[in-house]
Amino acid sequence: xEVPFLSFSHMNQQIKAESIKAFETFFDxxxxxxxxxxxxxxxxxxxxxxxxxxxxxxxxxxxxxxxLKSLNIGPGDEVIVPSNTYIxxxxxxxxVGAMPVxxxxxxxxxxxxxxxIQAKITxxxxxxxxxxxxxxxxxxxxxxxxxxxxxxxxxxxxxQAHGADYNGKLTGxxxxxxxxxxxxxxxLGALGDAGAITTNDEKLLETAxxxxxxxxxxxxxxEIIGYNMRLDECQAAFLSIxxxxxxxxNVNRKAIAAxxxxxxxxxxxxxxxxxxxxxxxVYHLYVIRTKKRNxxxxxxxxxxxxxxxxxxxxxxxxxxxxxxxxxxxxxxxAEEISETCLSIPLFPGLIPEQQQKVxxxxxxxxx
Length: 367
Ligand SMILES: *Cc1c(COP(=O)(O)O)cnc(C)c1O
Hints:
The protein is of the alpha/beta class. The protein folds into two domains: 9-103 and 110-243, Aspartate Aminotransferase, domain 2 (3-Layer(aba) Sandwich), CATH 3.40.640; 246-366, Aspartate Aminotransferase, domain 1 (Alpha-Beta Complex). It is built from eleven helices and 13 strands. The chain has a four-stranded parallel beta sheet with strand order 3-2-4-5, sandwiched between helices. The protein has a three-stranded antiparallel beta sheet with strand order 1-9-8, sandwiched between helices. The protein has a two-stranded antiparallel ribbon with strand order 6-7. Helix 5 links the parallel strand 4 and strand 5. Helix 1 crosses helix 7. The structure holds pyridoxal-5'-phosphate. Pyridoxal-5'-phosphate binds at residues 59-61, 85-86, 88-89, 131, 157, 159-160, 181, 183, 193, 195. Pyridoxal-5'-phosphate (PLP) is lined by residues 59-61, 85-86, 88-89, 131, 157, 159-160, 181, 183, 193, 195.
C-alpha cells in the first residue's frame, strides 16, 4: 500500500458533480473576467474569515505584493518577516522595493517569536508580516501589541492557515490588510492558481482592487500604474464550492493530527508539533523533527510513503538572498528547523490503514 504525501481524490470526489455543474454555468454565461463568480466568492470568503472585505487575486504572492503596495510600502522601508518562512513572503517585500528583516521563530511553534521582534525595529520599519506557518496561528495578541506600540502596520500571510484562530479570532482578520493563497495544496485550494486579500479597511480594499486591475476603477480610466492580478471567474466558482467543505476538511485534518500525536509519542529523538497557548492549528502540514531526518525520509520513501521538507533551505541561505549578507550560523533556529524538519502525509481522506503504515514505518526506523 502506497501512502502519497498528498492526494486530492477524496476532496475531488466530494465536489466533482457540483464543480462540473458550476463549470457548465460559467461556460454558458460567457463572462470570463471579474464577474459574478468573483464577487460571490469574495462575499463568501470575507464572511468565512469574519472580515468586512475580500478581494480575489491571481495567487498568494500577488496578494502579499498588493497588500504591501496598498499600504504604500516601498524603497527605503523595512518589513519584519520570520526567518523560516516560505520564500514568497520575502519576495513580495523585495518586489515592492522594501527590505525584508528576518526575525527568528520560536523553536517549539515554528512561528515568529514575538520576543525577538522589538530588537529588529528601526526608524525604517513599516510593517510586521507574521506567517501562520504549517497551519498554526502566530501569537497575534503579542504581535498586535508590538505593532501598536511602534506604530507599525500588520500584514498576515495566511496562506497556510485558513480557519485557524488565536483566542477565537480568525487568522487573516487581525492585520490592516492580509494576504492568502488558494494554491491547490493549501487547506482551501483552487484547481489552479488563486489568492486573495482580506481587510476591514474600505480604502485599502479599494486600492487593492485598483492595483489588481490596471490601476483602474472605471474601465479605460487609470488612476495609478497597476497590474493584472485578478482572480479568474472559473477558479472563483470552484473556490465557492470548496469553501463549503473547508470546516469539515479542517476537522478531518485535526483528527488525523491527533492520531499522529498519539501514535508517534516517545519515539527516539522525534519532536512532534506543539501548539502555543490560545493558538489553534489547522494542520496544513504535519511537521516532525529529528536529527536523522534525511535517513528517515529515505526509509519512508523505500516503504512507499511520500514526504516533503518545508523548507530545505532557509531564505537567508538562498542564492536569491545572498545580498542580505547573512552568514550560515547567524539565524540558528531557522537553520536548525530546515535541517531537521520532515512533513509526513496529512490530507482530508487519508485513511486509518495508511496512517498506521506511516506510524509503523517511523517506529520501525528507530528500532
Ligand atoms: C503558498 C504560500 C504563499 C504563496 O502562494 P502562491 O499562491 O503559491 O503564490 C505565500 N506564503 C506562504 C506561507 C505560502 O505557503
